[in-house]
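Try it yourself: sequence plus LLP, in.
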Amino acid sequence: MSHFSYRNGELHAESVSLADIASRFGTPTYVYSQQSLLENFASYADACAGRDALVCYAMKANSNLAILRLLASRGAGFDLVSGGELLRVIAAGGDPRKCLFSGVGKTRDEMRLALSHDILCFNVESIPELRRLNEVAGEAGKRAPVSLRVNPNVDPKTHPYIATGLKANKFGVAFTDALDAYRLATSLPNIEVVGIDCHIGSQLLDDAPLLEALDKLIDLIDTMESEGIPIHHLDLGGGIGITYDDEQPVAVGDYLGRVFARIDAWRQQKHGGRPIKVCFEPGRSIVGNAGVLLTRIEYLKPGEEKNFCIVDAAMNDMMRPAMYEAWMGVQAVTQRSGDEVQYDVVGPVCESGDWLARDRGLVVAEGDLLVINSAGAYGMTMASNYNTRGRAAEVLVDGSRCTLVRQRETPESLFALEQLPAQS
Ligand code: LLP
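Structure, out:
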């Protein structure tokens, strides 16, 4: 259920009018619905209830501390991809021992940091990384818990920039090399093999590719166990998509139901019913539809071929359209009567790629507010300061209460770290 809805012609986030948020906090502002976040997380948590399973929220989708704390309070672990993300988890009161560390380029410093906080597992993506982690763990007097991220070579049928499980992608250890990589891992003194991992892509609408990847991992685990390499957890990554336009993604509960049915049947058949821990790394499906980007119309600029609706949010605030030609929904905050006019909704940044939506019918006037829908995931986390634009404010709504969970950046803060060389 959406927690962004019209009441008397005015769009609200839960019980708070977006027009009130704009007048209190200005624009552009990301607005998140707490209820929506909790419901989305619950769709995973409920399907995992009573099982040895861990939902590790992929915080790259949205790493605001308030969101991390909320999810941590409901038992979430986290999938992280940098030392910075680990420090965020800790700052938000999350538990590092429920953290998985993914990513192809972990530095020595990041490894040391993660080891010092006893994270649950490193999702290792290559042999050189495995060797480095072995060294760093040895220096720290620790054994690093490791899963190999296996690349199952399954086509996730999504945008090429967010497909990760194909042979041509930089991610993971090739499926055909995985067994040898595990043999190597078990021979390294400071590595402790604990699991197996894959993540095949993002914004997947159908779970068939995910189940195909699961089948491949199951076969591999059986082969490994027959060689005496025990696996304690199986991590299926994230990837379940959301509705931006008219997409109909698989329901999270249905997907998890199918995953557990397969796993249960397999464990029953081959492992005497002995369970295996299962981890998931969902990002978008938890936060995507829990947030909007609130923006104000600066100008309506009629053109010969196109009309432009120039708003105060831009590609630096929301990169998805410029980067993936992503379709994002746009709605007027105040419903007006009148004839729709077709607009391209664009920002003030000096790039033709700076558009947020194209060819949309809107009934709007200058000064009106718009929202870009489904902006909770990969919105603020991908924002930049291009054109010396401070990043947007972020507001979390809980019923009739709203909290500024990140201040708007000031221009001064954007050049505060810069220094002028001495004049000669
Ligand atoms: N685990 C790993 C290792 C990942 O790389 C990702 C996302 C996830 C989990 C979470 O996937 P999700 O559940 O959100 O699909 N910026 C792009 C999406 C990039 C996804 C990167 N990896 C976008 O805006 O569409």
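One thing you can check immediately is this: Residues 58, 61, 79, 102, 162, 199, 202-203, 237-239, 281-285, 320, 324, 378 surround LLP (CB under 6 Å).
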